[in-house]
Design a protein that fits this description.
Layout: H1 3-15, E1 20-25, E2 31-38, E3 41-42, E4 44-49, E5 55-62, E6 65-66, E7 68-73, E8 79-86, E9 89-90, E10 92-97, E11 103-110, E12 113-114, E13 116-121, E14 127-134, E15 137-138, E16 140-145, E17 151-158, E18 161-162, E19 164-169, E20 175-182, E21 185-186, E22 188-193, E23 199-206, E24 209-217, E25 223-230, E26 233-241, E27 247-254, E28 257-258, E29 260-265, E30 271-278, E31 281-290, E32 293-294
Antiparallel strand pairs: 1-2, 2-3, 2-4, 4-5, 5-6, 5-7, 7-8, 8-9, 8-10, 10-11, 11-12, 11-13, 13-14, 14-15, 14-16, 16-17, 17-18, 17-19, 19-20, 20-21, 20-22, 22-23, 23-24, 24-25, 25-26, 26-27, 27-28, 27-29, 29-30, 30-31, 31-32
Length: about 300
C-alpha cells in the first residue's frame, strides 16, 4: 500500500466518530474534554478542562448544538458564566462573574438577544449600571454608577440610543452636565458644571454639535468666552475673557476659521495686537501696540 493511501486511510479513521462516550487529551496527557457522540455529533452531557486540569466548562449538547444549562469557569476555579441555551442561543436568565467571584453581569435573553432588565457590577460588588433591553436593543431608563456607589449618569434609551433627558455627575456627587439627547445626539439646551457646582458652559446643540449661542465660564464664575456656533464651528463675533473678567481677545469667525477683525488685549485692557484674517490666515497688516500705542 502506497504511503499516500496509508495517509488517507489514517485520516479517515481519525475523523470517524463512533457513537458513545469519548475523551480527548492534551499532549501532556491531561484530559481536555469528554462527552458523548451520537450520529457523529456531540449529544448529551459535556465537560472541557484547562491544561492544568481545572474544569473549564460543562453543559449539554443536542446534535452538536448547546442546549440547556451551561457553566464556564476561570482557570482559578472561579465561576465565569452560568446560564441557559436553547437551540444554540442564549435563552433565559444569564450571569457572568469577575475573576474574584463577584457577579459582573446578569441579563435575561430571548432567542439569543438581550431582553429584559440588566445589571452590571464593579469588581468590588457595587452596582455599575442598570437598564433594560428589548429585542436586543437598549430601551427605557438607565443609570450608571461609580465604584463607590455614587451616581455617574442617568438617562433614557430608545432603539439602542440615548433619547431624552440626560444628567451626569462628578465623583463627589455634584452635577457635571445636563441636557437632552435625540436619537443618540445632543439636542437643545445643554449645561456643564465644575465639581464645585459652578456653571462651566451653556448653549444649544443640534445633531450632536454646538449650534447657536454658547458661553463658557471660569471656575470663579467669571465669563470665559462667548460666541455663536453653526454645526459645531464658531461663526461670527467671538470674545475671550480672563478670570478677572478682562477682555483678552476679540475675534471673528466664518465656517470655523478666523475671518475679519482680530484684536488682543493686555492684562490692563489695553490693545495689544490687531489684524485682519481671511479664511483662517492673516490678510493685510498686523499691528502691535504697547500701552495702547501703535509701535
Amino acid at each position: 500500500m502506497s504511503s499516500r493511501i496509508k495517509s488517507w486511510f489514517k485520516s479517515l479513521v481519525k475523523e470517524a466518530r463512533p457513537d458513545g462516550p469519548f475523551d480527548e487529551f492534551y499532549k501532556n496527557g491531561q484530559l481536555k474534554c469528554k462527552g458523548t457522540y451520537k450520529d457523529e455529533l456531540r449529544d448529551g452531557p459535556y465537560e472541557s478542562y484547562y491544561e492544568n486540569g481545572q474544569l473549564e466548562s460543562r453543559g449539554s449538547f443536542c446534535a452538536d448544538i448547546k442546549d440547556g444549562s451551561w457553566e464556564e469557569y476561570f482557570d482559578n476555579e472561579q465561576l465565569k458564566f452560568r446560564g441557559n441555551y436553547k437551540d444554540g442561543k442564549l435563552d433565559g436568565a444569564q450571569e457572568w462573574f469577575h475573576r474574584n467571584g463577584q457577579l459582573r453581569e446578569k441579563q435575561p435573553y430571548k432567542s439569543g438577544k438581550k431582553d429584559g432588565a440588566w445589571e452590571l457590577f464593579h469588581e468590588n460588588g457595587q452596582l455599575r449600571s442598570r437598564g433594560n433591553f428589548k429585542d436586543g436593543k437598549r430601551n427605557g431608563p438607565f443609570e450608571v454608577f461609580y465604584k463607590n456607589g455614587q451616581l455617574r449618569s442617568k438617562g433614557v434609551h430608545g432603539s439602542d440610543h440615548r433619547d431624552g433627558p440626560y444628567e451626569s455627575c462628578h465623583g463627589n456627587g455634584q452635577l457635571e452636565s445636563k441636557g437632552f439627547f435625540s436619537a443618540g445626539n445632543k439636542s437643545g439646551s445643554w449645561e456643564k458644571f465644575y465639581d464645585n457646582g459652578q456653571l462651566k458652559s451653556k448653549g444649544l446643540c443640534q445633531d450632536g454639535k454646538k449650534d447657536g449661542s454658547w458661553e463658557t465660564l471660569h471656575a470663579n464664575g467669571q465669563l470665559k468666552s462667548k460666541g455663536i456656533y453653526i454645526s459645531g464651528n464658531p461663526d461670527g463675533p467671538f470674545d475671550v475673557f480672563d478670570e478677572n473678567g478682562q477682555i483678552q481677545f476679540k475675534e471673528n469667525y466664518k465656517n470655523g476659521k478666523k475671518d475679519g477683525l482680530y484684536e488682543s488685549y493686555d492684562e490692563n485692557g489695553q490693545l495689544k495686537t490687531k489684524g485682519i484674517f481671511k479664511n483662517g490666515a492673516l490678510d493685510g497688516p498686523y499691528e502691535i501696540y504697547k500701552d495702547g500705542v501703535l509701535q
